[in-house]
Amino acid sequence: MSALEPVIGLEVHAELLTRSKIFCACTAEFGGPPNTNVCPVCTGMPGVLPVLNRRVVEFAIRAGLATHCTTAPRSRFARKNYFYPDLPKGYQISMYELPLCTGGHLDVLVDGQAKRVGLTRIHMEEDTGKNIHDAHGDASLVDFNRSGVPLLEIVSEPDMRSVAEAGAYLRTLRSILQYLEICDGNMEEGSFRCDANVSVRPAGTTALGTKVEIKNMNSFRAVEKAIAYEIERQSDALARGERLVQETRLWDAEREETRSMRSKEHAHDYRYFPEPDLLPLVVERAWVDEIRATLPELPAARRERFVRDHQLSPYDADVLTQRKDVADYFEAGVAAGAAPKEMANWVMTELLRIVRDEKLDRALVIRDWPVTAAQLAGLAKLVDAGTINRNTAKGLIPRLRGTGRDPAELVAAEGLAQVSDRGALEAAAAEVLAKHPAQVAEFRAGKERVLGFLVGQVMKATGGKANPQVVGELLRKALAG
Ligand code: ADP
Ligand code: ZN
Ligand code: MG
User: Most Cβ neighbours (<10 Å): which of 183, 289, 324, 369?
Assistant: First the structure.
């Protein structure tokens, strides 16, 4: 059989950061004791009517504009009918035939190569409640706090051809929604969810193969693993001469496999019809233009600008622009006088590591940076000027944290400035060489690596304050003599 090519299309559900829900005034905030953020509308009581939250439409238009979609002047909500305990009305208000945004695209970078993924549509809908199993004996409970929280459903064309492309698409999309400040993009907490549609076909053909929809992934890694697993499963089945069935499968994170959940439901199973309780949605051109004027600089543009204006490598620029708060922090440091390359290194190696380890990046904006951008810029400048070495600077981060202290002032107050004075260092170097005749002999016999050990000894003798470059030079000179 000829080689197989994977075909992937992704459906993303993004919870919007509006203050209230989509059709009632309840708070849309995450958390809260079960069933406290509810009212007759979002619990589907008889006789109530939905009122559309204008902010939700604005956020949807923002997303559409940022992804090059066309905003429909006239769109319409529809009822998607199905029965499930977390859906008290027996239908979900969504959009069907006339979605708000259509025909966009996203340009993503895969191994430095640009790839365009088409966007079929973006529409608004309400989230459902949450079933809670295993918490109360053998009974299942329902929490309706999430019921009616606004969602965007963002549907891609089946344009992706590898796991890497799917991963890049998801990360790019999340980054854009975060820049727009309309979704916090937290996959673990479910504010950014992804269903993956996967099929395979003989390479070089254009007809689509039978697809499988995979659900239940709650991290980027899980999405990538699930797609990779599914490509392999389908390829193996075809190689054995089996026929694939269109179905929905669930990702089992523990066993790292997908399992059949149900045969695929079809649109007609949902008996869609126009929502009679809401008027067709008319969006005026002027409003769209107004929203367009408020769009921030988006990640791709910012990445290119960082390469151009700050002379960063494309890789560094990419890392620094994935989150708006990180990019803002970096630029604040540069504005405070740090050399861009130095600032970039500090942010990427030290800061982002701490941020990740302490999970400070769960919110849209990091409010608890280990140090402020001005402090980090101060450290970078001290290193650049040779006043302190990198290690001393690194050690100061925890001490500066939460103090607002100026690093230069701290260095001066505690006498931490690096010793570059040749006289003092020469004496220390001579002492170290006298104490380690064996290593001196090894070095002279050609074992260059020993120099690192000797530099370390001088650093130790000077309480870590010596300029390691100068120490290295002095030692070499002494050893050569
Ligand atoms: P459904 O009616 O089953 O929801 P859609 O046509 O609406 O199917 O597509 C849902 C998602 O599946 C879209 O993201 C689309 O790109 C993707 N998709 C459709 N057909 C295929 C296929 N054969 N292989 C992979 N993905 C597909
Ligand atoms: Zn409500
Ligand atoms: Mg669909």
Answer: 183
The answer to whether residues 246 and 234 touch, using CB atoms and an 8 Å cutoff, is no
Instruction: Verify whether ligand 1 is closer than 6 Å to residue 372 (CB atom).
Output: no
Q: Is the Cβ atom of 155 under 6 angstroms away from ligand 1? A: yes
pTM, entire model: 0.88
DSSP structural state of residue 298: P
Task: Considering every ligand atom shown, identify the ligand nearest to the alpha carbon of residue 195 and give its number.
Answer: 1
CA distance linking residue 340 with residue 372, whole number of Å: 16
Ligand 1 pocket test: which of 7, 160, 211, 231 has the largest number of ligand atoms within 8 Å of its C-beta? 211
Taking CA atoms only, the protein residue closest to ligand 1 atom 7 is: 155
* Structure tokens that stand for 145 in this block: 């706090």
Nearest ligand to the CA atom of 197: 1
Rounded CA-CA distance 433/478 in Å is 9
Please choose, from the candidates 162, 68, 73, 49, the residue with its C-alpha nearest in 3D space to the C-alpha of residue 113. Answer: 162
Task: Give the pairing type, strands 192-202 and 130-136.
Answer: unpaired
CA angle (160, 162, 165) in 5-degree steps: 60
Domains of the chain: 4-290 (no CATH), 299-413 (no CATH), 422-480 (1.10.10.410)
Average pLDDT value over all residues in the chain: 93
Inter-residue long-range contacts of 271-277, CB under 8 Å, 24+ positions, other chains counted: 271/79, 271/81, 272/78, 272/79, 272/80, 272/81, 272/96, 272/97, 273/78, 273/79, 274/76, 274/77, 274/78, 274/79, 275/50, 275/76, 275/77, 275/78, 275/79, 275/93, 277/49, 277/50
Q: What is the pLDDT of residue 1?
A: 53
Over residues 85-136, the pLDDT tens digits come to 999 999 999 999 999 999 999 999 998 899 999 999 999 999 999 998 877 7
Contacts by 396-400, CB closer than 8 A, 24 or more apart: 397/350, 397/354, 397/370, 397/371, 398/370, 400/371, 400/375
301: left (phi over 0), alpha (psi -120 to 50) or beta: alpha
pLDDT of 344 higher than 90: yes
For 272-324, what is each residue's pLDDT tens digit? 999 999 999 999 999 999 999 999 999 999 999 999 999 999 999 999 999 99
Q: What is the mean pLDDT of residues 210-224?
A: 96
Residue, of 384 and 229, whose pLDDT is higher: 229
